Amino acid sequence: MSSSDTEKTASSVQRIIIVGASLAGLSAAEALRSEGFTGTITVIGDEPYAPYDRPPLSKTVLTGLLPAEHTTLPQRVDLHAEWLLGVPAIGLALENREVELADGRRFGFDRLLIATGTRARPWPDSAQAALDGVCLLRTRDDAAKLRARLAAGPKRVLVIGGGFIGSEVASVCRELDLTVTVTERSSTPLIGALGSAAGMFAGQLQCAHGVDLRCNVTITALEGDENGRLRHAYLSDGDTLDIDVAVVALGAVRNVEWLHDSGLAFDSRGIICDSTCRAFNTNGMATDNIFVAGDVARWPHPLYEGELLTVEHWGNSVEQARTAAHNMMSAPADRRAYETLPAFWSRQFGVNLKTVGLPTFADEVVLTQGSIAERRLVAAYGHKGRIVAALTVNMARWLPAYKAMIEARAPFPPVLHAPDGPAELRPVPAGFPPRGQSTHSPIATPTGPGPSISPPEESSTSAKVQDPRVPPGFQPK
Amino acid sequence: MTQQSLYEQVLDYANRANPYPLYAQLRRKPITRQTDGSYVVSTYREIVSLLHDPRIGSDFRKRFVRELAPAGFPTNQEPASENQAQEAEVPVPNQGSETEVIPSFIGLDPPEHDRLRRQATWPFGPPHKPGRVTDMEPQLIRLANRQIDTMKGKASIDIVEDFAYPIPVKMISELLGIPSEDQPHLHSLSEAIIEGIDLDPQESQEERKRRQEQSGQTFKKLEQYMEALIERHRKQPGSDLLSGLIIDHGPDGAMAPADIVSTASLLLIAGHETTVNLITNGMLTLLRHPEVLERLRREPNLVIRLVEELLRYEPPVQILPNRVALTDINIAGTTIQKGSPVILLLASGSRDPTRFHDPDKFDPDRRDNMHLGFGSGIHYCYGAPLARLETQIALTEIIRRLENPRLVHDPPPYRQSSTLRGPRHLIVEIDGVRD
Amino acid sequence: MLRIVVDLNRCESYAQCVFAAPSVFWIKDGESLEYDYVPDDSLRVQVERAAAACPVQAISICWLDEQLGQQRGNHNEQ
Ligand SMILES: Cc1cc2nc3c(=O)[nH]c(=O)nc-3n(C[C@H](O)[C@H](O)[C@H](O)COP(=O)(O)OP(=O)(O)OC[C@H]3O[C@@H](n4cnc5c(N)ncnc54)[C@H](O)[C@@H]3O)c2cc1C
Ligand code: HEM
Ligand code: SF4
Q1: Ligand 2 centre and the CA of B387: distance in Å?
Q2: What residues does each domain of chain C span?
Q3: Quick check: pTM over 0.80?
């Protein structure tokens, strides 16, 4: 390490702890070392594995092309880190700067990065959730188990929730020639991430690929046989399905519980931090030694009117972790703001879907290139006359151009005269569900202005709306 | 004579051996408008942005020029006046011959481009034939070594004629299923065509037109050859790419016969006129950097990054002269007017100091190297995987086997073209050939 | 041991990596890139060619055997 590096680093920083040994945790550790940090790095993770990648779990691992263990992430620099794997952190003491582990050990730190991510939202009825055949998909072990079930050739797979993970699972089922039903409480799949206009297209893809897609429908109950094996699902439209596998794909729950009584500002929507990734405490002050990154973070993005965002995207975990790492070892004047545009990809039903920007922020969407019939298209999302996001379907090479337009706050609809564009631009409502309604996708969501300190009141009606069993159109009395 | 613009100096043959200082001057302004109404783009950021911009096309037929404002008139920032709005849109005549030539996909825009490119990729690469190029590796090694064997006993060799030209030409011919007895004929056709596309501003209008006519006629000859060849392959298909285009269709269906002809002609020309320059530029650059040459002899895998660095440092395709603005485009403080030709100086972008650290240094260990050697965006070079493998193998083998190679002329004599730039000959003295 | 990861946000599906190392990378359904994170060590040269060829430099490789060994050590510790 050169002397200039030493000066750059806040010299008091010798011990860094990272809680969460996944994508964000690893990316931060890599960034710390490549920026010249020579102190100790301790990575604490409750999963027993070295960091691995999740996106293939609902794609190549499920199709059987890739064994689940072939998802281990490379470590791009020599980390010299201490890995404490297979044991969760259960507490944080701000005053003593200590993290407590489930096995009773305590570790002191100068800087802490919280990268505990999310877990799959479980089926709300725990007895039904425990039936043999009811599956979640978040971890490598989940994926290996689900793969084994799919490989066994079930007579019908039920996917509960038409978000990205649910849709990808359904797509794999069709590739494996399995009969699959998808139930979605909203009017289209992917509605939470892309809106109903694009969601309708996604729904058409599902149907064209032979998915039994049931929108505006919920599962009211799962039922097993005397051996505890899943047998039936009851639908809100009155139907009963004979099934042996159900994949619960109802979105994610943030891993924040271990921070109870820590004095940090968090709630079920995430841990609040500023744009330099510093966590806020419950007094509304940014801490100087606690940083947050990845799926668990909630922070203000300058391009989106300062609303607090949560972004459950691969790219966000990497980039935000790098920013956090930089800021952790920098003197205050050298800290930088995290303002990378959200970006996401998914692969399902024969198409590569990619987005840049924040579709959920939009009120209108317009087709700018390609065509729905060809299943190759670009769509731009607009909010108050400016472009805020773009979606490509099998036309990824155009995305950088749209990214530049979003960064430049270009007007919406964008007038391009692209040779493969429509003769006339016809914006339509993007069709996002009202704020606060739960969705099923790993998505980017604006979650209101902030930093708000008190967690929202969990009223009985909002709990009802959160309950995935409650059918659409439910009116709280 | 009026003073040459910087871009005209780039085109001037007198500057062929080293256009890079001119590019550096051009980069002081990202985009410069030429007196003929075209726009020359010299900086990395702007080139990349335009290569990904849906408002830019590659189809020459979409060009037109407006009656130009008097020279020196600052049209760029000026809002379009009533006058300008009424200006006639005069299409630019077909740059080739009077005879209508259907552009191949390098000169088409989406969606036609995308479909033809997918159809052309079906028998060549993923998803249908992912291993096609890697499977050529053993054959390439044999071919390179056979060429090197012919240098045994000679004290001096021409890298171009004896090595860099024959390898890609044999490979593209075999790939397309062209019988070896036809190869010399095609060699001369391809050369004549390239001469015609290269614009020399020193020439008179008439001379230029005459050369373009001639090149167009040669192109017709090439197409006639291809038509006959395709007929033969249709009757007796082989495992070659051309047979693949004819009989092996993917989800986009069969390519129309006229498109097979233009695609095959495009591949033939691209296969003849590009990789030769990369291999030759590589040899020249190594001879100018003996320490790197020595390293490559010891660490053959260095060639992987070295070839990427060559594509940045001495790229065979220096200029993309064929873009057209499909609508007015505001970029870097300039408005490129609808219908104008847009000229992208790839080689200048790859030497842009705001993008590359120490850009005029040849550094095969360079990590951050997103060069523009093969273009970018939807027209990214189709043959890049083949060109890379050919060059990697060619350079590894020749450096391994030549004893004490020495450059005789520096700079060597260059070919005419400023667009597809490379030495005409590269004479090298050697002490012998290793086995 | 060889390990790779591709930033699929950067990836523009040029398939240069597939051409260079067809048993490690593959294109699914026209545009989606898929790959093996842990390719066999014998494919190292192909993988290096793939990473160098990627026009948007989306591919990262590592083969720090010692460090992985160290990691395994830590697994055993707990
Ligand atoms: C099946 C699937 C498919 C996906 N596909 C895509 C895709 O195609 N494109 C895309 O952009 N994104 C995709 N994602 C999202 C992407 O994987 C996530 O955004 C990313 O994994 C988030 O990384 P992270 O490190 O922030 O959180 P996580 O990956 O959730 O990691 C958090 C880690 O912390 C651990 N942890 C939690 N609490 C504690 C504790 N108290 N103590 C110790 N450790 C703890 C967790 O067990 C976990 O290992 C997908 C996700 C899944 C599950
Ligand atoms: C080192 C050698 C080569 C270099 C430097 C090179 C460079 C380029 C460049 C810069 C482009 C972009 C053109 C544009 O954007 O308008 C291109 C396109 C193309 N190249 Fe190459 N090329 C090489 C070898 C080859 C070979 C060997 C082939 C044939 C097998 C080939 C076939 C093509 C084709 C067909 C296109 C058009 C692609 C499209 O329009 O989609 N190239 N090449
Ligand atoms: S070469 Fe790069 S851009 Fe192309 S498919 Fe591979 S990773 Fe993606």
Answers
A1: 9
A2: 2-71
A3: yes
